[in-house]
Fold:
Amino acid sequence: EVQLVESGGGLVKPGGSLRLSCAASGFTFSSYSMNWVRQAPGKGLEWVSSISSSSSYIYYADSVKGRFTISRDNAKNSLYLQMNSLRAEDTAVYYCAREGRLRIFDYWGQGTLVTVSS
Amino acid sequence: AIRMTQSPSSLSASTGDRVTITCRASQGISSYLAWYQQKPGKAPKLLIYAASTLQSGVPSRFSGSGSGTDFTLTISCLQSEDFATYYCQQYYSYPPGFGPGTKVDIK
Structure:
């Protein structure tokens, strides 16, 4: 059974940093591209970032480019999102999502809440 | 970036009803469109990809159609477990973008 479990969310002040993790199991992690998708409270879904299976290709939404860094450790079956210079508008539930086919998200974690507030 | 719109933004329906949700892309995306269902407090679930291909395990009462810029998601006979918010998503190009969602609630 495919499982994705996010962790690392919490309350952080504007300008602060946070590192999210996603632990994957139930599939060959190193064979799949992975993504982060976020959802602000009461709002819709926003794609944040993606990383290819071997980390060769990395993409970011314009809204986070230069502030967020996606990475992965295939030996640990883990995906990460380093978030710096956080803003109030980054407040959201952050989901880790497997890319089963080209940019299609076939499995999602339960999400981790990031709140940016003073 | 390609912009996705959905209509209606919300609808009220009864169990057994036929429901249709429309999604439109700001430019042609061929059939590179997926549909997701999200229930409150839960992660989204993939329903349909390639505009009309049902994801494994998804009931056949869900169907999708369209290509180019206009797409539809149809639920042929609404069940109680189908009350949720539905999002379309284009994956034709980066950034992959979602529509604003359509909330289906109980009449």
